[in-house]
Design brief:
The chain contains 1 helix and 8 strands. The chain is mainly beta. It has a single domain, classed as Jelly Rolls (Sandwich), CATH 2.60.120.10. A hairpin with a 5-residue loop joins strand 5 and strand 6. The longest helix is centred in the N-terminal third of the chain and has 5 residues. 13% of the residues are buried. This is DUF861 domain-containing protein. It comes from Candidatus Pantoea multigeneris.
Length: 119
């Protein structure tokens, strides 16, 4: 299998801003991303993601690793303690992690979503 490169140019090609799917506050958080799929691993992708302030439910149920490049937020897993996340922090979400995001300052993160085994 070949390595998959996500170039600096690709990272600049962000999608248009869209509202978060499950908002819990006003104003509603807006998000955008630049992403590349990794064809050898169905459901696997990596990219850059931005999100504006607001509170909302996490909708992604796959395993995900994130490195926060900028911003400030909190994540409270259902039944767990609130985690404060700032620029320079990393977090791993096991599959089926449910919880609430509280973005206080627009965040930018690099992410890796883990899908299935290679085809």
């Amino acid at each position: 299998m070949k390595p998959v490169l996500f170039t600096a140019q690709q990272q600049q090609d962000l999608s248009p801003w869209e509202p978060i799917a499950s908002p819990l506050s006003e104003p509603c958080s807006m998000h955008r991303a630049a992403e590349t799929e990794i064809a050898q691993y169905p459901g696997t992708s990596m990219g850059i993601w931005d999100c504006t302030p607001g509170i909302w439910r996490r909708g992604l149920m796959q395993r995900e690793y994130c490195y926060f490049l900028s911003g400030h937020c909190f994540f409270t897993p259902d039944g767990g303690e609130t985690l404060e996340i700032k620029a320079g922090d990393s977090i791993f979400f096991p599959q089926q992690t449910h919880g609430t995001w509280d973005v206080r300052e627009t965040v930018r993160k690099a992410f890796f979503i883990m899908g299935d085994q290679p085809v």
